[in-house]
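Reviewers of the previous submission asked for a worked example of the structure-prediction workflow described in the proposal, so we include one complete record here. The input consisted solely of the amino acid sequence. No template or homolog information was supplied to the procedure at any stage.
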Amino acid sequence: MAKTIIVYASFGEGHKKGAEALKYLPDAVICDLLDFTNPLLRNIYSLGYLTVTQYFPYLWRVLFFFTKIKFFSFCVDKFNRLIFSSFFKYLEEIDPKIMVVTHFFPSSLITPIKDKKKFKVISVITDLRVHPLWVSGCVDHYFAALEITKQDLINIGVEKNKITAGFVPLREGFLKDISSESLSEKFCLGRRPSLIFVSSFQGRFPSLLKSIQVLLESFNIFFIYGKNLELKKSLESLDSPYLRLFSFYDEIWELICASSIIISKPGGMTVFEGLYKKKPFVFTHYIPGQEKENMKFLIKQGVAKFARGEEQLKDAIYYFDNISDKLRDDYPIEVRDIRKPLSSLIEKWSNA
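From that input alone, the workflow returned the following structure tokens.
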């Protein structure tokens, strides 16, 4: 019997990373909800999400709006419970005492079997602002990143005593105290400040080559290009000793710690990790809905900017470079690692 099951849904990588950050929990198993359907439907869900968010963002905005309508959500849940029936059989087999979810999708499905099996459900919110789909009557406790996240939950109808605020899931490497001197020596950074560009599947950076050519005059640049080999080839043509290219980097906390600014999209885990390390952000693209809400909040707090073109990208980077020392000393947002309070709650419930 698994004591704890950690469930995510692989619409993008962020929710998976959030789940994997919790794998330290004792007697825990991690699973992807999308593994509990046939390969065709899995591809329709995951590739459909990526296609719509990349090529038809306005359609995604419309779908995002409709999910706020209770009747629409009810119908979707009924359909999904049929599609993911094998997930319910799996829960019957492993008989968990506690389920932790890092995506709203699983918690919207499990009400029937939770009523039967009587396990506890913890929802770890992997965004800064809360969409109504995060809220389900079957959730026993919520972990929220910030007080504003907690207030969103309260406004939707969640009781205050069911919410713990100020904590986020973090991969273990982010908890390490890594000296800037050791990172500078490892990556041969010299006296230059460094930037990290993180390209997602939807990655778009305005006038990229022209911008980077200018930035390389002043900065070291780490660039995560993912599976975009065409992007890699274009960047390699710059032939600069100050440009480091990675398809991925297992210990990405090293690159983030070594960098003074993160240039990416406002996905939940990227935001959590950057906030924990007190880094400013420059966002060049976003998925309508939750990512836009993440971005708007961070811009309002003064730790992020949105760059629509080459000049805005450069201006935003130079702006944060100029105030980096002041911002680091007076960073307006604090998040803490979720391990201690989550483990304490699970231990309490497990021994009940």
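The longest helix spans residues 39-55. We consider this example representative of the routine output the project will generate in years two and three.
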